[in-house]
Amino acid sequence: MSAPFGRRQLELRTRRELGPYVVLGAIDERAHAEPGQFYMLATAERWGGGDGERPYLARAISVMRAGEDGHVEFLLEDVGPGTRRLCEAGVGEELLLVGPLGHGFSEPATPALLVGGGIGIAPLVAVQEAWGGRALLGFRDAAHASGARLFDEPLVATDDGSSGHHGRVTELLEAELAEGPRPIYACGPPAMLSEVGRLAAAHGVAAQLALEAPMACGFGACYGCVVATLDGYRRVCVDGPVFDAAVLA
Amino acid sequence: MIEFCGLRLRHRVINASGCFDVLAARRVFGEQLFEEFPFAAYVSKTITLSARDGNPPPRLWESAAGLINSIGLPNRGLAAYLDADLPALADLPVPLITNVMGSTPGEVGELVAALEDRPAVAAIELNVSCPNVTTGLDIGADPGELEALLRHVRPLSSKPLIVKLTPNTADVAACAAAAQAGGADAVSLINTLRALALAPDGSGAWLGGGSGGLSGPAIRTVALAAVSRVARRVTIPIVGMGGVASGRDARELLDAGATLVAVGTECFRDPAAGGRIARELEARFTQIAE
């Protein structure tokens, strides 16, 4: 389905904090995002004019959840001027948005393993709600592991051992794969994704990876967000953000 | 209707080359894109003779009120443009301006000549100024070389030739005058300003291509000065661009001497920005007339 053309203004309806994360909710009556899709998000007021006059461009933010009633939720973490401003947005404030954008996940034939790292857990919430699957989640510490509350029966790993398995989420993945091959859906930091790709290849299972890249536009205009694939550079915004791990160079 | 180099346009706002990909946007936004097409003419991304992969990522850096890019002109080359892109653009609702770049006058001539028998191409814009690649930079920054390029290319095309001028030169007005002397039908300016973004960890250049080009509101007043100077030196029409984000910004470039205004980086923030700016401009015209 096509995204409505142009940047639109929607009111921020809900905001709640989840450990260090913020969940923003709006109602988009004109579109319904598929799992893995994203929007370009900005606030209507005070976008720019901060330190160094940033933020200037909208930020590409994964859809965490999209209900049939138009309710759409985003998971945010303050990691820079754009996400900071979005995290500070209050209920009733106007958001500027373009979307939903991108090529999302395709439905698995069998229940999948959902591997998320940090803020990368966001699109997997939508995947689990749509198609089920076993969530394996990695965080740096127990505070960030609050994000696991968005999932049904997750397995958690933390870098510092303050919650769940002390170690990497890919160690949980390896143990699960040893019990039987299942398709993998993953989103997280580059090192995690590359290990997921390696394990998928080793076990002969398909892995759909949702990539993140700095983006100026989100709709294929700027060519700024490319990723190297076996077939050359591809735009994360329109050819992804979800790619089959086997095609990535 | 607006008259520009023999083209009849619905309004004065077009896109800056490289800032809108109609084919990708149509896949994303569907038919609504053509029903509400934001530009009075569409300028393609730069086409080169051979296919180019573009520069290694990262390609973008958000700066103070702007964007530094080092994309590197990725495109599938002239043959694919003629065989695949032109047919796919057949139902474009506005005139098509094809932007080309060659590293020598011979290459530019080859590109221009290949478009001659393509009625779908209403005009040609010559990229002689992209600061991301070493080719193209010297010709556009030097009035003598620029005039020589135009004298070589002009006889090869009956289509309007628009020369895109770089601000990375000692005297942009002298370059515009050289383009006119060589037979250009119009000039467009400014391309991006050469800029450097450094990695926060001190490891050197952030962008995969090294340095990049700055665009966005940060360069708007620079563009205004360049258009104003060029307008006093040439009689051919000017496409003004650089940081335009509103009808008021567009109005200032027109007041400085531009006939058309191109919208670039603002399209990234809002794909429909061109249409909004055209409407804001129209409203101001109406207001003044009243």
Summarize this structure briefly.
The complex is a heterodimer of chains A (249) and B (290). Chain A has 249 residues and is α/β, with parallel strands linked by helices.
| Helix and strand run of chain B | EEEHHEEEHEHEHHEHEEEHEHEHH
Low-confidence stretches of chain A: none
Enumerate how many helices of chain B there are, as a single number: 11
Strand order of the largest sheet of chain A: 1-7-4-5-6-3-2
Query: What is the element string of chain A, with H for helices and E for strands?
Result: EEEEEEHEEHEEEHEHEEEE
Could you explain how this protein is built, in words?
The complex is a heterodimer of chains A (249) and B (290). Helices cover 17% and strands 33% of the residues of chain A. Chain A is an alpha/beta fold and 249 residues long. Chain A has four helices and 16 strands. In chain A, helix 3 (169-178) runs parallel beside helix 4. Chain A has helices spanning 81-88, 122-131, 169-178, 190-203; strands at 8-11, 14-18, 21-27, 38-43, 59-66, 71-77, 94-101, 113-117, 134-139, 155-158, 165-166, 184-187, 207-210, 226-229, 232-235, 242-244. In chain A, a hairpin with a 4-residue loop joins strand 5 and strand 6. The model of chain A has no long low-confidence stretch (mean pLDDT 96). The radius of gyration of chain A is 17 Å and the shape is globular. Chain A folds into two domains: 8-101, Elongation Factor Tu (Ef-tu), domain 3; 113-210, 3-Layer(aba) Sandwich (Rossmann fold). By secondary structure, chain B is α/β, with parallel strands linked by helices. Chain B has one domain (2-56, 72-196, 215-289): TIM Barrel, CATH 3.20.20.70. Chain B has helices spanning 22-29, 32-35, 77-88, 105-115, 137-141, 143-153, 172-181, 220-233, 247-255, 265-269, 273-289, and strands at residues 2-4, 7-9, 13-15, 42-43, 60-63, 66-69, 96-100, 121-127, 161-164, 186-189, 193-195, 212-215, 238-241, 260-263. In chain B, helix 6 (143-153) runs parallel beside helix 7, helix 7 (172-181) crosses helix 8 and helix 9 crosses helix 11 (273-289). The longest helix of chain B is centred in the last third of the chain and has 17 residues, at 273-289. Chain B is globular and about 50 Å long. Chains A and B meet through strand 7, strand 14 and strand 15 of A and helix 1, strand 5, strand 6 and helix 10 of B.
